[in-house]
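Case study 2.
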Amino acid sequence: MRRGAAAIAYGLALSVGGLLAGRAFGADARAAFNLRQVAPGVYVHIGREVLPDAPGHEDIANIGFIVGTRCIAVIDTGGSVGTGRALRAAIRRRSRLPICYVINTHVHYDHVLGNAAFASDRAVFVGHAALAGAIVRSRAFFLQHFAADLDAPATSGEIIGPSRLVQIGHPLYIDLGGRRLRLRAWPTAHTDCDLTVLDERTQTLWTGDLLFRGRVPALDGSVLGWLAAIEHLAQMQNVELAVPGHGPVARDMAAALVPERRYLKALVDGVRRDLGQGRSMQQAMQEVGAAERSRWVLFGDVNPRNVERAYAELEWQ
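Prediction:
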């Protein structure tokens, strides 16, 4: 049975079989938890590239942490409490410093459902100013569709939102001891609550899902806003590494943004063409972006939903 509602939240149609098979991030998975130190004190776990109905949906996002001399900041926590615990265990194998911050780059389940694994650390949860409301609005949906990825019995209290907020136009600076993080909240793009994190010591930028590599971008905000954000990101100076929300770490962020910009521009151009020709949304969903199909993982699952969102945004322009 396909879970069409899950596609609304993330652009993916997750099957019941996949959800049940992936409900526990067990001991074997924890032992194999991949983790790379991509820069001094900066650790990244690369999420899996799995089909929408496959086990492992709870571990598809890139997550990780940054170590200072005083404490540690976690960047996203994965799509289940088990994934969050696996990340926490990986941290503890490398450092006994306190975990003082958990930073979420946006509201999607694969980035926030592991937050509860860090509740005992009394960490400050940080996010975009709009993330608090997005979490509140999403709790019922998460409980309905992702209860198996939370501890039983699943409760809304496990779905933790931010207590410290970052406003658009007002970066937040966090000191971990010996290194400072710059958190920036973005106008609506991939979602309405996108946040980036720059480690100023190593010039490593965590983009969240403002950057997808390999996996087709999932639109849940504004396609025009996302293209504008890409232009700003491409112009950022001195970024040595970019950690995308999905896909491999990039050493040339401007180059890494090119395929995503091309795909989103194809959405805009194709939808505008179909609108100009009087084509329906259903026709656009079958046609727009077709030339991009071979370039992206999960294209057939995600692209129709992206076209639908772009059509709704551009229809009344």
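The first strand starts at residue 2 and ends at 3.
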